[in-house]
Amino acid sequence: MAEAKDFKFIGSRPVRPDGVDKVTGRAQFGADLNLPNMLYGRVLRSPHAHARIKRVDVSAALAMPGVYAAISGADFPGAKHGDIGGEGGGDVADVAKNVMARDKVLYHGHAVAAVAATSASLAEAALEAIEVEYDVLTPVLDLDAAMAADAPLVNENCFTKNLPEPAEKPSNIAAVMNLARGDVDEGFEQADVIVEGEYRIPMVHQGYIEPHACTATVNEAGQATVWTCTQGHFSLRSQTASVLDMGIADLKFIASEIGGGFGGKTVIYLEPLAVLLSKQSQRPVKMVMSREEVFRASGPAAGTHCRIRLGAKKDGTITAATAWLAYEAGAFEGAPMGPGAMCVFAPYDLENFRIEGFDVLVNKPKVAAYRAPGAPQAAHAMESALDELARELSMDPIDLRLVNAAQEGTQAAYGPKFPAIGLKECLEAAKVHPNYAKPVPEGAGRGVAVGFWFNAGMESSAEVHLNEDGTVQIIEGNPDIGGSRASMALMAAETLGVPYENIRVLVGDTEASGFSAVTGGSRTTFATGMAVIQACEDVIAQCKARAAATWGVDEDQVAWEDGQAVPVPGVNAELKPLSLADIMKNAARTGGPILGRASLNARGAGAGFSVNFGDLKVDDETGKVDVLSYTAVQDAGKAIHPAYVEGQMQGGAVQGLGWALNEEYVFDADGVLENPGFLDYRIPVASDMPMIDTQIIEVPNPSHPYGVRGVGETPLCAPLAVAANAVRDATGVRVTDLPLSPPKVLAALEGA
Amino acid sequence: MARVVFPDHLLSVTGGVREVEVAAANVRDLLLALEAQFPGSEETLAKSAIAIDGQIHQDAYLEPIGSNSEIFFMLRLEGG
Amino acid sequence: MSKLHVTTSINGDPVEFLTAPEQTLVDVLREQLDLTGTKEGCSTGDCGACSVLVDGRLVCACLVLAAEAEGAEITTIEGIATADGLHPIQEKFLEHAALQCGICTPGYIVATKALLEKHPEPDEETIRYWLAGNLCRCTGYDKIVRAVQDAATTLAHEA
Fold it and tell me: What is the CA radius of gyration of chain A?
């Protein structure tokens, strides 16, 4: 790893390379592509939360003037089992059935059929002509009810995985997970104080402002091009290939700019539908989800029911900890209960613990990732319980966490020993932060919480091309959701030693870039950055060889300094340095164009810890909670572009506060979502929030050339408990269920 | 000998065995050794994430394993 | 029902188009006139991504019927920068990193222009309440507010 020194470009705050196009409306997002001869696709969605499909007949729709394609489950290849690949894995068959229902509809809004017509209004009218016969079944809508032994089943073929003995009866519990260490009973015996808490969080949505949108066109040779807003075009291509049984080479995916994802745009929804409609009609098909469809039928975050029990000595040392964590998977298995279970105790050095996790089917949309999937819900429970523990022990909440904090060498709750991490540094920084010293305003309360996420490495590719004038073109495969082009250019500038302004960054489509895993998992600056750095090092090696040839010396006589080939000190002092421009002027003669490349499966992602605290005020007449101030401290390893690191911390904090204070899916008794719009699913608006103060801690990750740790996901983990703990502090009442919306808070205050 | 620990959800492929000691120069050799000990385990274990001396790897194969390494098989990690 | 013929002015240019009576302005801008800078996030006037100015007034284009554009002067994001370059609001958004994914940014730029024309020296509360109709899910609003404050100062100096 590069030695700690003053970086020349890294750590600065230049304007992002794609910035001008984004402030002028030039940048093209998912719904911005219109092609000649294009049709508009629309989806018919299930009016029932749970039903068997007896019959689907699209013929009347297809017969309508202006309608050129109509599909249903029957038009898809049989849903085969297999690994969907991509980040968390999952069964292809489930994804295929989620994209379009086959024999059953499993949530209100589940796609049943789709049409493509010459106008959106014709397509809407065509949907009405599709005939579907359902056998309506009882929906399972409550997490606890779904777990009961006699619950109606979402899937009669689902048998609980990972039980000690194979399951005999089907169940809505798709899988369990157990992690344990030591002897919790003994640990509780040793405790001076024991606290317990039970916490419920409803389903919420990532809330990206851009609805899912794509345009697909298939030519007569069966080659498809799909323009879509996604966090990972390579991943979506392979998911589409699996679901449609198409060869990967026949699918070209182009990542448009993306208007937010947060994990929700790592899976396919419209893409296979648009491809099939385009195949059938032999015309391009554009499909855009309405806001209502996004809420009803994309991938929200799992609702949870969690129980935590902690035992500790008077000095704050935790002697035993248990967690019971049940997650809603929605219609198909795959709730993030594994990561949640692995994260719940991860920040702490515990001798005795037991964690039980449950992945539970309910007749709601299939959940997708939401920024550190599984961890925010688990952290809310643990950090709320820790807050109660601090009160019992009359300890400062930061001090309690310092006593138990994991550090380098601590055996993590999920198994391995931690390498260098920055939790203690974040706790200590929070403790002496000027905002922490400020008294809590009259009538308000302060909450503190810790956040943690593993951060991922995974596969990335990068190419670096030198232009004839020595300027630099980077090609990589990661959609830019929050300034990553700027970070790539900064890392390249630093490595090559050339000005940031000389560098351009292209997010290549699946034909133009090497394979890259999603922009997500807090991996892009780390892993794709690593690939860009290595590709630049490849360029440098080639440039040194060209310089040697030009000078007529051996390659080991050439060094690279500040963007130039220079003679190694002590020899050939009369040789003048050669810049990239100089080298390129002679390139045709010294061997041709200069391209550097790298492809890797990035090793050594560094875990990301955060400490957040905030002052919140509760109106005791209305129950409304206001956020007066908020401070986020997080270990970024090395902040390549500090403004975009701050941006992740601030954005995640506000998402978390929204989740804590007001966001929830409200279902009626039939499983119909009652608030599928931004008016009633109210995310924070500008007037709800104060400035979000940030402090970036840098405990370098030894595995990255510049010390980078991912930062994108950790910010969502702490805010839920910050809010809950602040409300407790302000009112004396612990409201354990989220959101802390006015009716809930008022009821809690009145009941107290 | 490297110490290899299996989480609960992989006990089904190890017949309930939680911990073994294995001599292996890299992950490829480890998987082969485990397949020999627990026939049929390789496919599942190969898809698992694996932590070697604290570093978490996905799709590990050529990563070296030391004679005193501590190895934990883990759930494949996601992100959002 | 046959289409309506609309004559209007967009970003200073005379424009004519045909529209179904029920079509919204955002739909016509994006699908017919290739002005895709204005974004559609919700179609119900809750997110502000489709913010445009109609006769200088800030509106959600998804709540305006295309037919209502008749005789009006419309300003979209495409009309904010001039031949001389970016508007100071656009520059400040870039300088302050007040965008991450960028989908809400066109709406914010237009809304901010309207805000600063009405309140050239807004305090933080005024900025936050005025822009409460523009949703952003990425930034947490902090850097947006700072960009607007800086733009206000810059424009005040230029005036």
Answer: 27
Q: Closest residue of A to C38, CA-based? A: A25
CA distance A616 to C61: 36
**Segment A238-251 mean pLDDT:** 97
Cα separation, A625 vs A294, whole angstroms: 28
Q: Tell me if ipTM is over 0.90.
A: yes
CATH assignment of C88-158? 1.10.150.120
Supply the Cα-derived Rg of chain B in whole angstroms.
11
Q: Quick one: which H or E segment has residue A490?
A: helix A484-496
Taking the Cβ of residue B70 and every Cβ of chain A, the question of whether any pair is shorter than 8 Å is answered with: yes
Please tell me if residue B19 touches chain A, with a CB cutoff of 8 Å. Answer: no
Predicted pLDDT at B79: 76
* Residue A500, pLDDT above cutoff 80: yes
Residue carrying structure tokens 């609003």: C141
The answer to whether position A547 is within a domain reads yes
Q: Per the CB < 8 Å rule, is B79 touching A373?
A: yes
Residues 6+ apart with CB under 8 A from A422: A609, A635, A637, A697, A698, A699, A709
Pairing of strands B19-22, A503-507: unpaired
pLDDT of residue A82: 76
- Structure-block tokens of residue C1: 């029902």
Both A468 and A411 in a single domain? no
Residue C103 has pLDDT above 60, yes or no: yes
The residue type at A455: N
Q: What percent of chain A has pLDDT over 90?
A: 95
**A587 and A683 share a domain?**
no
CB contacts, 8 Å: B55 with chain A: 416, 419, 603-604, 703
Q: Yes or no: say if C124 and C149 are a contact pair by the CB < 8 Å rule.
A: yes
Same domain? For A565 and A616 the reply is no
Quote the pLDDT of residue A5.
Answer: 67
Full residue range of the structural domain in which residue A571 is found = 19-26+457-602
A36-59 pLDDT, tens digit per residue, is 999 999 999 999 999 999 999 999
CATH architecture for residues C4-79: Roll (3.10)
The domain locations on chain C are 4-79, 88-158
Helix (H) or strand (E) holding A146: helix A143-147
DSSP A556: G
The pLDDT of residue A451 is: 98
Among the partner-chain residues B56, B75, B79, the one whose CB lies closest to the CB of A523 is: B79
* Partner-chain contact A419 B51, CB within 8 Å: no
Residues of chain C with Cβ-Cβ distance to A207 below 8 Å are 137
Same-domain check for residues A100 and A247 = yes
From the list A287, A312, A313, A112, the residue with the least C-alpha distance to A217 is A287
Q: A386 and A350 in contact (C-beta within 8 Å)? A: no
| In-domain check, residue A581 | yes
d(CA A130, CA A557): 75
How far apart (Å, rounded) are the C-alpha atoms in residues A524 and A35? 31
How distant, in Å, are the alpha carbons of A169, A304, A368 from that of A329?
19, 10, 9
User: Which CATH number does the domain housing residue A528 bear?
Assistant: 3.30.365.10
Of A473, A513, A436, A492, the residue nearest A641 (C-alpha): A492
A338 contacts: CB under 8 Å, gap ≥ 6: A177, A357, A359, A374, B9, B75
Residue for token pair 């060498």:
A409
Q: How sure is the predictor about A24, in pLDDT bands with cuts at 50, 70 and 90?
A: very high
pTM for the complete prediction?
A: 0.97
DSSP B3-70: EEE--GGGTTTTTT--EEEE--SBHHHHHHHHHHHSTT-HHHHHHSEEEETTEEESS-SS-B--TT-E
Mean pLDDT in residue range C27-52: 98
CA A215 to CA A270: how far, in whole Å? 9
Q: Is the confidence at residue A87, as pLDDT, over 60?
A: no
User: In the predicted model, is pLDDT for residue A2 greater than 90?
Assistant: no
